[in-house]
Amino acid sequence: MPVWSLHGDGRHVGPGDAVHPRERLTWPLTIAIGAQHVVAMFGATFLVPSITKFPVSTTLLFSGFGTILFLLITKNRLPSYLGSSFAFIAPITAATAIAGTGSALAGIVSVGILLALVGVIVQVLGTGWVDKLMPPVVAGAIVALIGLNLAPAAWSNFKDGPLTGSITLVAIILFSVLFRGFLGRISIFIGVLVGYVAAALQGELDFAKVNAAAWIGPPTFQFPDFATPGTWSVIAMFLPVVLVLIAENVGHVRGVATMTDPAVNKLTGRALLADGISTTVAGAFGGSGTTTYGENIGVMAATRVYSTAAYWVAGTVAILLSMSPKIGAVFNTIPHGVLGGATTALYGLIGVIGIKIWVDNRVDFSRPVNQYTAAVALVIAIANFTMQWGNFQLTGIVLGAGAALLIYHLGNAVARARKTGADDGGPIPAVGALGGDPVDA
């Protein structure tokens, strides 16, 4: 068990001070902060299994287990919570419809194994090759297309309860602008609660399974199926998710390093390895794939407490919650309308995160290579282009991601060989000062 030194008197964090990963406050305060991390991760973590129809309790179990595993592999130096990754929703939904849950779990396991291998390579070679494979225009396109590919799924749920969905969506937007700080960051969670109450008032809830569920009991386990012929075409749908998880993990590590210690960047390979192993184990027993959570970075920024002790608490609490079938049954009562309202916002936000990558890196969209990399990939994903050879099928996400990589790298090679100026020339030069108030010339 890790040992933490007490920060100061264990009760206060001075102005400009911070509690570092290997420090902690008093245990009552640490437990309280850990509980806050559970609240921060809960809204997103339970939504994934609710949307994909995976057992909520099983996903919570492997979320908590994965968090503790992550802390061990990163030598207790990288504070992070591993929650359900939204990048898996589209391939899980498609795979389940085409070949069943077992094949979807096989896809999750495959992503985990590949991500773990990437982690080993990064630990040995560093992250430079990742940046070359996925420059900002490609990374942004892949993240955006995964969210936008899900738009039809959001509408499918929304139209089953348009009034409830509208109330949920309005509440999410309202709370995001009404509150500041932590409450603003969990606006989706609060919006779902409002939508749930609205559904209850309209008589849309069915508690028969909740009443029948036991208070204490083990989660439901399911296992991957690699034998079904359609599984291997399903696995292809999951491959772009690896690129998203790499981007999420690398970004998370860099964010934590900025807030704590630049030396944390050396743990990037271990972080990828840990997330890969966590995703593999989750998929092997019926849980959804995991990723490092930005929501919890927000909690750390607000509290200035980066202690990994709080994450041990959060992981343990998640495991304890997973041992109640009744809690899982309650989450399964969430009506389609509520999910439709939440996912309308959520899937759009995933798309916007991809666009934000372009903005943050000042991608030059006057260059044809960048234009077509983004344009073609997004249309393929939104329309969900498919190609099929017998039982093997490629859908919009994998085709869009493949198109982004192919157009960018081949397009650059041709443009640079011909010196046409159509290649990616790097970020747009800044015009004037970045940030601050505008100043008259």
Could you please describe the fold and organization of this structure?
This protein is mostly helical and 441 residues long. It has one domain. It contains 19 helices and 6 strands. The chain has a two-stranded parallel sheet. The protein has a two-stranded antiparallel ribbon with strand order 3-4. A hairpin with a 2-residue loop joins strand 5 and strand 6. Helix 6 runs parallel beside helix 18. The radius of gyration is 22 Å and the shape is globular. The chain starts with a strand and ends in a 23-residue tail after the last helix. The mean pLDDT is 84.
* Tally of separate domains: 1
SSE topology string: EEHHEHHHHHHHHHHHEHHHHHEEH
Work out the helicity level: 55-70%
Low-pLDDT segments: none
Mean pLDDT: 84
Strand order, main sheet: write it out. Answer: 1-2
CA-atom Rg in angstroms = 22 Å
Q: First CA to last CA: what distance?
A: 60 Å
The major beta sheet can be summarized as: 2 strands, parallel
Shape: globular
Supply the number of helical segments. 19
Strand content: under 5%
Number of strands: 6
Write the layout of secondary structure elements.
Blueprint: E1 5-6, E2 23-24, H1 27-52, H2 56-73, E3 82-84, H3 89-99, H4 101-125, H5 128-133, H6 136-148, H7 151-158, H8 162-178, H9 182-185, H10 187-201, H11 208-212, H12 231-259, H13 268-285, E4 290-292, H14 294-303, H15 308-322, H16 325-331, H17 336-360, H18 368-383, E5 387-389, E6 392-394, H19 396-418
Helix pairs in contact: 1-2, 1-15, 2-13, 2-15, 3-4, 3-12, 4-12, 4-13, 6-12, 6-17, 6-18, 6-19, 7-17, 8-10, 8-17, 10-17, 12-13, 12-19, 18-19
Family: Belongs to the nucleobase:cation symporter-2 (NCS2) (TC 2.A.40) family.
Keywords: Membrane, Transmembrane, Transmembrane helix, Transport
Organism: Microbacterium mangrovi
